[in-house]
Amino acid sequence: MDKIDIKSMTIPEIEELVKKMGQPKFRASQIFKWLHSGTVSFDEMSNLSKELRSLLNEQCYIADVEIIRRLESQIDGTVKYLYRLYDGQTVESVLMKYNHGYTVCISTQVGCRMGCKFCASGIGGLIRNLTASEMLSQIMAAQRDNGIRVSNVVMMGMGEPLDNFENSVRFLKLVSDDKGMNIGLRHISLSTSGVVKGIYDLAQLNLPITLSISLHAATDEIRSRTMPVNNKWNIDALLKACKDYQKITTRRISFEYAMIQGVNDSDEDALLLSKKLKGIMCHVNLIPANPVVETEFKKSEHKRIENFRSKLEQYGVTATIRRTLGADINASCGQLRRQELGKEEV
Ligand code: SAH
Ligand code: SF4
User: Which residue among 15, 92, 160, 256 is the active-site one?
Assistant: First the structure.
């Protein structure tokens, strides 16, 4: 597609574009407002001149996603979407309702190249990066489908956001723009498997987002077994980057820890983890590992997770057990897309 992806552009960039079209600068914020209120056709932009609308139609496209599957949990109302992109690729999002509002979990890539052994998203490798506009469109489609406004976003769906750094940062800029969706950066979490270079690059931008680290193990021996990224940047290098990140941003860091039965869930692991996290202002989220058809990992028993949590507290690390949402709809990312791909292969 050689048309311009206008929904990924900032207002100053759209100003440049309309200038080239011989149009007045103020048109840029009008266009931006239309795009970010979810409009998917230039013809609907009723306050633009006819001439400008036809120039936009000729030179630009408006990214959108199409809902091809929608699963709603009967337990807690969580909705899981499988979206089709313009080239037929598919990604997943999850809409969750909390007391404080709606949160959408978005994907940042089609597939993922990090290859974590417990994760369904990485099984087929990386297909391609998502554009910023495709990230925005996932939120817009969920809002449109449910007639709601989303207040929080987590970049925890399929893909590694720091392996798609430019587009992820562009997305953060656009989604928080007060002329657009205006979702504050403080209401956004970005989750990484531990791409240390990206953590340093992100630190330089000093954004008030929440950085979430998928740690999942307290020793290199265990972490390298399940997360190949650990061979490039081991736990010490990762935690050093977290400390440096915190020095700049002063933001508390979240650590995700999926509890896998017999792999990383012993009292000894809790002790080692608390030692490793010393000196970092942080919070640990304990997640009962989600069983994935293609992997052999099982989640820890609830009692084990509870024990692990109280051990951490005893060692001075605050931790909560993540509520499982959408347990009846396979809400863990990557799984719906795998099912759909499986169908096509049959
Ligand atoms: N690539 C980024 C963000 C997307 S993954 C990252 O890895 O952080 C979102 C979260 O789901 C990560 O914490 C990931 O480790 C976790 N996850 C993946 N598969 C899982 C599974 N089967 N059970 C529990 N958590 C899982
Ligand atoms: Fe990629 Fe995250 Fe899945 Fe690892 S856990 S394969 S980094 S999406």
Answer: 92
